[in-house]
Design goal:
about 20% strand; globular; alpha/beta; 6 helices; Rossmann fold; eight-stranded mixed sheet
């Protein structure tokens, strides 16, 4: 009898150790707000996935939960990149969720609306999708072994821009903000994608309002040879630090852009381990 219970326990542990996603969840009931495009007749409103694993034409945003093995774990909403036109949801989504599970986090991989609804302000609709996802995560985190008071956002490239806007954009001072944020080679923080450019200011910018009482701690990872300059991460990190936020910035000499959770370069192999150490140091993740 004892061996039977041991086998059952081992089976239970194995089922949790083998990270598997749950069924995707719709972000909105009905038509998403501020929609300006119309899907093709008969097309799946949740989007079309290419042979390369990139999702496009998303009209009904969803997210896929990857529960942590233990209750009360940190929850990380993952925002893949893709220039606000597509979603690189394999190496900046699924693969990331698996690494987060290994760290001990619940992951929610968000499929926000693409392509751009506006060339000049492409983040408007995706930001609504992300903000609603945060609201859902606060209410339902326990269903995925998550802690509703320990929810962060992790974004890549355009997704990093989106995560920065949720955490720090000056509009809607009293809006709910994530408890921590990780920006991986974030794009469009600068006015121009040039090393000597400046951070976007004003209502459509990324510089926090001085009325914000508490700024989420931030982790940055970038490559020095990225065409979206690493100087943007460095300047954003320095600004947040000057405003009292706890910040950690890593810049590797090489790697380029878009490495995600792959084995392509040193940065792509190391950033999740370093982020895990940062999360433990900040008390986000248990030691």
């Amino acid at each position: 009898m004892k061996s039977f219970f041991n086998l059952c326990s081992l089976g239970f542990l194995f089922s949790w150790c083998s990270a598997e996603p749950l069924k995707e969840i719709l972000v909105w009931d009905g038509v998403a707000p501020l929609e300006t495009l119309t899907p093709q007749p008969g097309a799946d409103p949740r989007g079309v996935v290419s042979a390369e694993g990139r999702r496009s034409d998303v009209f009904s945003p969803t997210f896929v939960p990857w529960p942590a093995a233990r209750p009360n774990s940190p929850v990380v909403i993952v925002c893949p990149g893709g220039g606000y036109n597509k979603l690189a949801e394999q190496h900046e989504g699924v693969a990331v969720a698996k690494r987060l599970n290994e760290l001990g986090c619940t992951a929610l991989v968000l499929r926000y609306r693409v392509p751009r609804r506006s060339e000049n302000t492409p983040w408007v609709q995706p930001l609504l999708d992300l903000r609603k996802t945060l609201e859902i995560a606060r209410a339902r985190a326990g269903e995925w072994n998550g802690d509703s008071k320990n929810i962060g956002v992790l974004g890549f490239s355009a997704g990093g821009n989106l995560a920065a806007r949720l955490a720090y954009a000056p509009a809607e001072v009293n809006a709910d903000r994530p408890d921590f944020v990780a920006l991986i080679y974030p794009a469009y923080l600068f006015v121009k994608d040039e090393p000597n450019s400046v951070l976007r200011e004003g209502p459509d910018g990324v510089i926090p309002n001085t009325e914000m009482k508490k700024l989420a701690p931030a982790f940055f990872a970038h490559s020095a040879d990225d065409p979206y300059p690493a100087e943007a991460s460095q300047k954003m990190g320095a600004l947040l630090k000057s405003m009292g936020a706890k910040v950690e910035v890593h810049v590797w000499a090489g790697g380029g852009h878009g490495w995600g959770a792959t084995d392509r370069c040193v940065a792509s192999r190391e950033w999740t381990r370093l982020m895990g150490l940062w999360m433990k140091d900040r008390g986000i993740l248990a030691q």
